[in-house]
Amino acid sequence: MKRFSLLSLASLAFTSLQAQDCSEIFISEYVEGWSNNKAIEIYNPTSEAIDLSQYSLSRWSNGGSTPTTTVLEGSIEPNETMVFGLDKRDPNGEGYEAPLWNGWYVYTDSLTGMVDSIYTDESNLMDRVDVFLNPNYDEVNTMYFNGDDALSLEKLTGEIIDIFGKITEDPGEAWSDADGAYWTKDQTLVRKYGVLGGVSDNPEVFDPTAQWDSLPANTFVNLGIHDCQCNEVGLEETKQEIVLIFPNPNNGDVLNLQSSSIIDGIKVQNTLGQIVYHEDFNSDLARQQITLPNQLKGIFFVEVFLRNKESITQKVLLK
Predict the structure, then answer these.
(1) Which of 165, 188, 246, 254 is 20 to 30 A distant from 200 in Cα terms?
(2) What pTM, to 2 d.p., does this model score?
(3) Is 241-319 a CATH 1.25.40.10 domain?
(4) Cα distances (angstroms) measured from residue 58 to each of 1, 109, 155, 162, 258
């Protein structure tokens, strides 16, 4: 595991270099999940590998004017990403503070009273992180961001090449949309397909809906892959279909479905292969919500049928 040192804290100049389309790296995904589930994905839209030792990532906490800054290392290949995650594991082996989710959930079976576990790949953030930042319990930490902290990606010369949020503004709990719904707290945000570069000037108003798509809290399945118009060649052939089923584990009877394609139907089977729920959707929506019979408890296999004739099956725990 690589270790990264912190720069001394210093206020970065607000000078900016306007990047041309697809000519500079930018922040492509933002994960502000429960507990310490924090991650930032950076995307390289260029045709050359980018040396990250010439860049840094900064957090501007609660509207502050002095950032906490981390110098990056390594390189990003053309049209590839690098995912940075918060690591609160104690390197001395003396314990840990809420590490990133690793896909495993331990629970007590309501029927047998025995302790069991379930693994879901879509809940595994740990394995999607390329670089773990600040694992040594630092008092100040770039990756400790919450919904009210601005972030910036800059060159070591001080030129800001991308900004998330509005630097020096404290929005309260989070930046919101026009209806007042939080967008930067307990959310995963993915840069829109048509965004070709970063925001190099501090915005007068930060509207998260303008350049970002919103996904539910603790959604990690997109990390490591970014679709962008900068890489249109062969995109349709390589694009992966994604289905999100949440919440999982589920304490109620409502399941939410979200996919990268139109959802045509759903089938739910128990561990004996018996179909306990089935529904067809007569719509052109990629997001659906279903209400299951409230007596269903235990492990179930949920198969989601997509308009492109594919189907994706995931394991869900109903408590």
Answers:
(1) 188
(2) 0.74
(3) no
(4) 21, 44, 11, 10, 32
CA–CA separation, 234 and 209 (whole Å):
28
Letter for the amino acid at 217? A
52: nearest Cα among 131, 126, 138, 169: 131
Break the chain into its structural domains and give their ranges: 1-91+126-238, 241-319
Tens place of pLDDT for every residue, the chain, 319 residues? 333 333 333 334 433 334 458 999 999 999 999 989 999 999 999 999 999 999 999 999 999 999 999 999 889 999 999 999 998 877 666 667 788 999 888 877 766 778 888 888 888 999 999 998 865 555 558 898 999 999 999 999 999 999 999 999 999 999 998 889 899 999 999 999 899 999 999 999 999 999 999 888 898 988 998 988 887 644 444 456 778 787 777 778 888 888 878 999 999 988 777 889 999 998 888 889 899 887 788 888 889 999 877 888 888 888 7
Question: Same CATH fold, 241-319 and 1-91+126-238?
Answer: yes
CA triplet 97, 101, 107: central angle to 5 degrees?
A: 95
Burial readout 293-319 (b: 16 or more C-beta within 10 A, e: otherwise): eeeeeeebebbbbbeeeeeeebbbbbe
Give the list of residues 6+ apart from residue 105 with CB closer than 8 angstroms, or none: 117, 118, 119, 120, 123, 249, 317
The DSSP code for 183 is: S
* Phi, psi for residue 62 in degrees, rounded to 5: 50, 40
Q: Taking the CA of residue 195 as centre, how many other CA atoms within 13 Å lie in the half-sphere pointing to its CB?
A: 23
Tokens of 157: 């010369």
Highest CATH level, class, for 1-91+126-238: mainly beta
Nearest Cα to Cα of residue 238 among 104, 91, 80? 80
